[in-house]
Write a structure and sequence with these properties.
It is built from 5 helices and 5 strands; from the N terminus they run H-H-H-E-H-E-E-E-E-H. Strands 1-5-4 form a 3-stranded antiparallel beta sheet. A two-stranded antiparallel sheet has the order 2-3. By secondary structure, it is an alpha+beta fold. The N and C termini lie far apart (79 Å). The radius of gyration is 35 Å and the shape is elongated. Helix content is 50%, strand content 25%. The protein has a domain of 105 residues.
């Protein structure tokens, strides 16, 4: 009986506490709270705010692209040609192609294929190859320098805007 009276007393106090606190102005009603939350939600759900958030997500300018630089090297004596001048020009061309390949690798990535043959728990053959495929546009030649007696160095650069364009083109493929 004593436990029943205590339980009844707690139940009455609990049910009356909300009304007493509201009369004293100490507790807001559930409806007031819902209106306040609705106003806050409406503030973040206006068409302008939603449009700006969507634009920010879709706009490529929010992604900052670096200026890419690549360096290519080629040996003069290993180039085909009848004279040293032809070999030098071919080395410059080969160094430029090596730099373009490096730019393509930076923008489009490198696909690696590998194969390993194991017989009797011993590696018999281990081969791998890297493949770079992509389009490079707007590469600017920064410098072409002889390095040493028999080697040429070519440095190429792609600015931020062109990198962003090439990145978007690669994503659309």
């Amino acid at each position: 009986m004593k436990n029943f009276l205590i339980l009844l007393f707690i139940l009455v106090i609990q049910s009356c506490s909300t009304a007493v606190l509201e009369n004293l102005g100490l507790q807001r009603s559930f409806q007031d709270e819902m209106i306040t939350q609705g106003e806050v939600a409406n503030e973040y759900n206006t068409p302008t705010v939603q449009l700006n958030k969507t634009k920010e997500i879709l706009d490529a300018s929010t992604i900052t692209f670096p200026t890419l630089t690549a360096t290519g090297y080629a040996v003069v004596s290993s180039q085909p040609g009848q004279s040293i001048e032809q070999k030098r020009l071919m080395a410059i061309r080969a160094a430029r192609m090596a730099a373009i390949r490096e730019l393509a690798e930076q923008i489009h990535g490198l696909k690696v294929d590998s194969n390993t043959t194991v017989i009797d728990l011993m590696v018999q053959n281990d081969t791998f190859r890297g493949i770079v495929t992509g389009v490079i546009r707007g590469a600017r030649t920064v410098r072409i320098n002889p390095t040493g007696a028999d080697t040429y160095e070519t440095v190429l650069e792609i600015d931020q805007d062109m990198v962003a364009y090439l990145f978007r083109q690669a994503q659309s493929l």
